[in-house]
Write a structure and sequence with these properties.
This protein has 465 residues and is an alpha/beta fold. The chain is built from 17 helices and 16 strands. It binds uridine-5'-diphosphate.
């Protein structure tokens, strides 16, 4: 029986892939829904839910976000404890649906049935659960529409692999910038090395025609033509950027941060350090929550950051710290600060931050774009190389490094790129573009903006269906 006293108009289940970069946007979108009286229950994996250290996230509105985990079969150690990535994904594919169906039944028993499942494209099996449970299905893209369009074209055989040997050697999809092969997502460029991810990522597009809505964590002006093209085939909604409201429209009162962090952050020491530095003077460097750089690459970046001559703040996750050169912390004393994790948003929003050396994970790119920080792109894998291309050539909000013939970014190259955005000829143009996109991002999510209108339309759909 449905609870007659409930304060919300519909209830959705949100199923993210278990990583910081995938949960952040879906959780943030859930907060936007809460403001519009839609209740969202987040279903991370049991292992990941332990990092979240709470069973409920307050939204400031009538409805909070409940955390109700499901199993990937590795409840203690998550994917890090799996024998291999294929073993992990296989296990998730078997355990996930069972426990997801149990959760859907449980919520129904509790008088609060689910209307729709919003799921991460990396978990294509969720669509099957939604169909079997007669729920609306909503695919959520955490990567750009251009990257997803490339995956779609590959899945449908419209881009033939290997790309090297075909036609012009360019990767081209409707409405998006043409890419050289080396700028394409690594799954497409080098699919032999990434077969596990390749199959999983492409699978979502074999069933995308059955999905009720496709939501994208961008705003319309970022990729107009690609969105228009996609909208001819599917019900597409651009609902981003999903950066906490405090940094954008400030309309969600309690939305100051991402509500959880995968690693323990050292925020106070970073902010204290930044407070002592002049405006726009420091380099912030971070390669996200997952990247594992080779020791050689690590060393080049370490000395590159030092050789830039600017003060720098570098996030090196604990597991990566053994790769720091011997004696490095002493060598950079007075110049650089290395921390294991921080609040990236607070650092990017700080006046002292002059540029962001990033792996170009899409959340990091969006954050820099929304907070107006010039980017030096040092892409590692996945969609990052394509994001870096867009940063430099499409949005014009930064530059990207060139790798040598061994695929290594040399220290001199990093220094050159950092100087370019901090004091070079491109600086003014980059700052002008950042000001433009920063404004567009706020307008899109604010009252009357394109993303906000689409969220309204989506909410009406949820209530009506
Ligand atoms: N992040 C953070 N503190 C850090 C480094 C990163 O809060 O010290 C956050 C960052 O704000 C972003 C996410 O972690 O939202 C990383 O996502 P992204 O897509 O950039 O990269 P991924 O980790 O998925 O490779």
């Amino acid at each position: 029986m449905e609870n007659p006293k409930k304060a919300h108009k519909a209830h959705v289940l949100v199923v993210p892939y278990p990583s910081q970069g995938h949960i952040n946007p879906m959780l943030q979108f859930s907060k936007r829904l809460a403001k519009k009286s839609i209740k969202a229950t987040l279903a991370p994996t049991i292992c990941f839910s332990k990092f979240m250290q709470t069973t409920e996230i307050s939204t400031g509105y009538n409805t909070s976000i409940q955390i109700r985990p499901i199993s990937d079969g590795y409840d203690e150690g998550g994917y890090l404890s799996a024998e291999s990535i294929p073993a992990y994904l296989d296990s998730f594919r078997t355990q996930g649906p069972k426990t997801l169906i149990q959760l859907i039944d449980k919520l129904k028993e509790e008088g609060d049935p689910i209307k729709a499942i919003i799921y991460d494209g990396l978990l294509p099996w969720v669509l099957d659960v939604a169909k079997k449970s007669r729920l609306l299905s909503v695919l959520f893209f955490t990567e750009t529409c251009s990257v997803n369009s490339i995956y779609y074209h590959v899945q449908r055989g419209l881009i033939k692999l290997p790309i090297m040997g075909s036609g012009s050697g360019l990767v081209s999809v409707p409405g998006a910038a043409e890419l050289q092969v080396w700028e394409a997502p690594s799954l497409v460029q080098d699919y032999d090395s990434y077969t596990v991810w390749f199959d999983g990522v492409l699978e979502q597009f074999s069933v995308i025609d059955q999905v009720d809505w496709v939501l994208c964590n961008i705003f319309y002006d970022m990729e107009k033509e690609v969105v228009d093209w996609m909208s001819k085939m599917w019900k597409v909604g651009t609902i981003g950027p999903t950066i906490p409201s405090y940094y954008l429209d400030k309309r969600l009162e309690e939305d100051n941060d991402y509500s959880f962090t995968r690693f323990k952050p050292k925020v106070d020491s970073c902010i204290k350090w930044l407070d002592t530095k002049p405006k726009g003077s420091i380099i912030y460097a971070s390669f996200g929550s997952l990247a594992k750089l080779s020791p050689q690459q690590f060393e080049e970046l370490a000395w590159g950051l030092k050789n830039c001559g600017y003060n720098f703040l570098w996030v090196v996750r604990e597991l990566e710290q053994p790769k720091l050169p011997k004696g490095y912390i002493d060598e950079i004393s007075g110049l650089g600060l290395v921390v294991s994790w921080t609040s990236q948003l607070e650092v990017l929003a700080h006046d002292a931050t002059g540029c962001f050396v990033t792996h170009c994970g899409f959340n990091s790119v969006l954050e820099a774009l929304c907070l107006g920080v010039p980017i030096v792109g040092v892409p590692h894998w996945g969609d990052q190389g394509t994001n870096a291309k867009f940063v430099e050539d499409v949005w014009g909000i930064g530059v990207r490094v060139k790798k040598d013939e061994m695929g290594i970014v040399k220290r001199e190259e990093l220094v050159k790129c950092v100087r370019e955005v901090m004091e070079g000829e491109k600086k003014n143009e980059i700052c002008k573009n950042l000001a433009k996109y920063k404004k567009l991002a706020r307008e899109a999510i604010d009252e009357g903006g394109s993303s906000n209108k689409i969220i309204d339309e989506f909410v009406e759909y949820l209530i009506r269906e």
